[in-house]
Structures are given as structure tokens and as C-alpha cells.
Amino acid sequence: MSIYKEWLSEFKALSVREKSGADIIFELTGRKAEILLDPTLTLNKESWIEISCNGEILPEKDFIMTYFLGEMDNNLKKYINKIAEENNLEIINFGDVKNKDTYILDPSSFIAHIREAKIIFTDSFHGVAFSIIFNKPFLVFERLSEGPSMYTRIDNILSIFGLQFREFKGNYDIDDILNVDYSAVNDILEHERQRSINYLQKALDSTRN
Predict the structure, then answer these.
(1) Which of 39, 145, 159, 196 could form an SS bridge with 70, CB 3.0 to 4.6 Å?
(2) What does the pLDDT look like over 130-157, one tens digit per residue?
(3) How far is CA 194 from CA 41, 55, 63, 96, 131, in A?
(4) Same domain? 86 vs 5
């Protein structure tokens, strides 16, 4: 750990994207790291739309997008299938190695799918982040994997925006999923976005002195 302390101490400015990271830096160095937005959230929706692809690779009917980096157990698959069948929605499993058509798609296609999805189910931080950017109804799930939990960053982003109710706790029906008001979230996002940009600009300016 001493080498991390030495390296971190050499930085003029330190920022992280979740509280747990700030706690680690403080424990190692005694310095306060600023907690800022993930870089994806510092760009607005219009900027992301500019680099997303057009609709030629998107399904013609309304669809659910799933984006899971861990496993999807059978109960979850049944739940998603039930929501899709009851509401005449197609399911697009993005990033699933078993689905070559979507697995090979590039980041611009990923953004386009989130942009146009009716609902997003995910265990991914960036699945949550882009759902917020595009004001999409989503549910987030604990990741099922053998590695260390990556949920702290998801927990942090949900807390910042008051979206803890988007954590999957049981069998939500379609109205529960679609019922999300983004007006307050967008106000927080704009405030945090400006705060992050201001901090980064100040940090960059300090390196020139």
C-alpha cells in the first residue's frame, strides 16, 4: 500500500466517482478526493446522440434492452420474458456472447439501443448511467459473478440521483417500471455536471502553474 500512497501523493488534484474511492484515498494519504460524476455523465444527451448510430440496426417494434455483465438466472429470464409477452415487447440482449448479432455491435449501437429502448434491465454501471442520460425507465440488479462486487459505484449513482427505488426488489409490473419522473433527476444531473466540469478545469489549470 505504501507505493500507492507515494504515487497518489504526487498528484496535485485527486477525484473519484464514488465515496468508497474517496475513503480509500483519505485512508492512504489523508487527502480529500473530490467525488465527481463518471465522465459519461458530463456529456449531455444531445452530445451522445451525435455519436450514436442511426436506426438501421434497431428492431422495428418496441423493445426491452437487457445489458448484463454477470449471469442472468432462470427466474430473472422468466420475469423479463413475462414483462415482454404481456406488453408485446421484443427483447434485445445486448452484450450477450451467445447472441452474435448484438455482441459484435459497437459503442454507437449500444447508445442507440439505450436511446430507443422502452425499458432497460441491467447490472452494469454504464447501463444505469446511460439510462439516466436518456431518461429511460430501468431496473438495476445485483451482478451474479464470481469476482468482487462492483455494486458500490451503482449504489453511489443511485444515491446521488435519488433513484434507489430502481433497484430490483421484487416482481414489478409494467406500470411500476415505467413510473419514473426525471425532472428532479435532470436538475441534479445538470448541477453535478457543471460542478464536475468546473473542478476538472480548475485542476487542469493548476498543472500549468
Answers:
(1) 145
(2) 999 999 999 999 887 766 667 888 999 9
(3) 11, 31, 33, 35, 19
(4) no
Name 66's bridge partners: 93, 121
Number of domains in the chain: 2
What's the predicted TM-score (pTM) here? 0.91
What pLDDT, in 10s, does the model give residues 146-200?
666 678 889 999 999 999 999 998 778 889 899 999 999 999 999 999 999 999 9
195 located within any domain: no
Cβ contact 14:26 at 8 Å = no
**Both 30 and 131 in a single domain?**
no
Closest-CA residue to 144 (of 65, 90, 75, 63): 75
DSSP type of residue 187: H
